[in-house]
UniProtKB/TrEMBL annotation:
GO terms for molecular function: fatty acid binding. SUPFAM superfamilies: Bifunctional inhibitor/lipid-transfer protein/seed storage 2S albumin. GO terms for biological process: systemic acquired resistance. This is Bifunctional inhibitor/plant lipid transfer protein/seed storage helical domain-containing protein.
Length: 118
């Protein structure tokens, strides 16, 4: 292996390490941003509204139907925005102990129509 090849390999290693560091930093920023969103509510639903819906979307022993407070919270929600969160199941479980599939069924149980592309 020539000195030029060794130098090129070192540069490649440095570039790869920097790229991995940037990816890790981006992941941390995204997680912290998601945490901040959850702490203040999501998609025009306050934290209290999310808690009102928790029993009907609970991971264990959910109630059969959402409460009136839950349906009121969902009536004012940005349902298109909620659709963007449906694939972030770990966040819902971690903060609210909510099953994503049950949560996504709540608007229908409240008589609300989910967006077609959800």
């Amino acid at each position: 292996e020539s000195q030029t090849e060794r130098h090129s390999n070192k540069i490649d290693t440095i570039i790869m390490a920097k790229a991995q560091s940037m990816a890790a930093l981006l992941a941390v920023v995204l997680v912290l941003g998601a945490s901040a969103d959850v702490a203040h509510g999501i998609c025009n639903i306050s934290s209290g509204g999310i808690r009102a819906c928790q029993p009907a979307a609970a991971i264990h022993n959910p109630t059969d139907a959402p409460s009136a407070d839950c349906c009121a919270a969902l009536a004012g929600a940005d349902l298109s925005c909620l659709c963007r969160y449906k694939n972030v199941g770990a966040m819902w479980v971690r903060f609210y102990k909510i099953d994503v599939k049950r949560a996504m069924a709540l608007p229908r149980k409240c008589g609300l129509a989910m967006p077609a592309n959800c």
